[in-house]
Amino acid sequence: MNQTAHELSASRTLWDLLARRAALTPDGPVLLQDDRVLTFGGLQDRAERVAAGLYGMGVRPGTVVAWQLPTRLETAVLSFALARLGAVQSPVIPFYRDREVGFALRESRAEFFAVPGVWRGFDHGEMARRLGAKGVFEAYDDLPEGDPRVLPAPPAEGTSVRWIYWTSGTTSDPKGVLHTDRSLIAGGSCLAHALRLTAEDVGSMAFPYAHIAGPDYTVMLLLYGFPAVMFEQFALPDALDGYRRHGVTVAGGSTAFYSMFLTEQRRRPGVPVIPSLRLLAGGGAPKPPEVYHAVVREMGVQLTHGYGMTEVPMITMGAPDDTAENLATTEGRPPEGMEIRIAGDGEVRLRGEAVCQGYLDPAQTAEAFDDDGFLRTGDLGRLTGSGHLVLTGRLKDVIIRKGENVSAKEIEDLLAAHPDVGDVAVIGLPDAERGERVCAVVEQPAGAGELTLEAVTAYLRAQGLSPHKLPERLEVVDALPRNETLRKILKYKLRERFSAA
User: Fold this and answer.
1) CB 379: neighbour CB atoms within 10 A?
2) Which of 30, 86, 88, 380 meets the CB 3.0–4.6 Å disulfide criterion with 64?
3) 82: enclosing H helix or E strand
4) Mean pLDDT of the region 252-265
5) In the beta sheet, which residues pair with residue 164?
6) Terminal CA-to-CA distance of the chain, rounded, Å?
7) Alpha helices in 309-386 (DSSP H)
8) How many domains does the chain have?
């Protein structure tokens, strides 16, 4: 990390970080989208005017404001406006629906809810009204604005909880993860330190800005003073024009993104799919070693993969100068300030400034941390002699599909009520494109009718399950494998059987 970035990483708050970067390079671009350009100075000025508009609506320091918005310039402006006010933000992934959104609004006690209106054919405003949300307002093209002179002073410290992010984990209901400005700055600093980027780079955000990766990536832009292209809807090959036009040098997101870029590269072998690209980077899902080797061999760029979670946005990251073996088979090394402890049962535990403050539910917080203040991740792993982390499995029953956590229990609980389902186990199967795919294995009761994948997904949609959680594979078996004591379903046997198939 260069000297300027190192100094900026000590910023007290996210607003402080933006103000310091805007003073250094006010005319430098920070966010690019289609033909629109937002500079560091422009982001600060616009966010302050929007903060005044929100203040006029009644938003104050500590007010809880939920927002469910796509990856747009306006979303970043609104988020920094809330940071300027010292409000508590509760970002919600745009493709979540009634079940998750309703839970998040209730548990966070949100007093305002920003939505995009009708987006990609779904009416978010109607859902908000259906859920009885408070203070609903649209924040897509237009944002409320006012005179910044009415604003109180910016927040002076960054250690108060001002962010509530949502993760499914292993339970059917989401968990509200509590972050501070300082924990998000620390997480972004970890990412920036590992990737060794410069002011000449051009990044990209093809993931939901409401994901924990949103602030993670934005902090990196502020530290190093380079821009990123925002993609509201990411699909290849359509998005390639944006990458090429803006000269993106760093792309990625997760294993699914690597696979999509590889697919495009294979359409014209030997011709760089993005001529300016030099690095793919990401995390959030398992990365098979063969994907790393294919990217390097066929695309001619480096690939660095990392390990993070909503509770700790950046834990380890591969560095561009790591060995090919380490980049292919490990999750990289932790940065300075991130402590990793491997417990006796092999669980990975974490302590450091980037670690969240806990959960909205105090009982979940008490369970999540050990006596020494280390966060229990539920992941299994080991550290190599060079300090690289290798993940070997998970204690918690969660499927990671395209970088998003999918709770097996939530799907199982819904399917258990289906009349043609006697018992069910939902598992994740390895998938080179998605990281994992969702597979429902069903044991039917006597006399049940034929069950198809189409019927299962239609049923789950009707129950309000988000589309990204829908099973992509259905297996009907005579009997689910169980142990001999408590008759617990042995999911590892199902994974072995259907992974091989």
Assistant:
1) 22
2) 88
3) helix 73-85
4) 88
5) 178
6) 46
7) 324-329, 362-368
8) 3
208 shares a domain with 161: no
Give the whole-angstrom CA distance, residue 44 versus residue 56.
19
C-alpha to C-alpha distances, 51 to 84, 197, 436, nearest whole angstrom: 7, 31, 40
Q: Which two tokens stand for residue 411?
A: 């799907």
d(CA 308, CA 315): 5
What gap in Å lies between CA 111 and CA 64, rounded to an integer?
6
Asked if residue 32 belongs to a domain, the reply is no
Tokens of 469: 């959680």
pTM exceeds 0.85, yes or no: no
Angle 461-309-226 from CA coordinates, rounded to 5°: 105
Q: Which two tokens stand for residue 276?
A: 């300016």
Query: Could you give phi then psi for residue 429, rounded to 5 degrees?
Result: -115, 145
Residue 84: CA atoms inside 13 Å, Cβ hemisphere, count? 26
Pairwise CA distance, residues 189 & 141, whole Å: 31
CA distance 70 to 208: 6
Residue whose C-alpha is closest to residue 162's, from 90, 232, 254 = 90
One-letter amino acid at 85 equals: L
> pLDDT tens across 324-368, in order?
999 999 999 998 889 999 999 889 999 999 999 999 999 999 999
Residues 306 and 217 grouped into a single domain: yes
Do 61 and 172 fall within a single domain? yes
Q: Among 184, 210, 243, identify where a domain stops.
A: 184
**Cα distances (angstroms) measured from residue 199 to each of 174, 225, 478:** 38, 5, 60
Tokens at 345, concatenated:
């049962």
Is 335 within a domain? yes
Q: Name the residue range of residue 86's domain.
A: 3-26+37-184
Cβ-contact 80, 197 below 8 angstroms: no
Cis peptide leading into 155, omega within 30 of 0? no
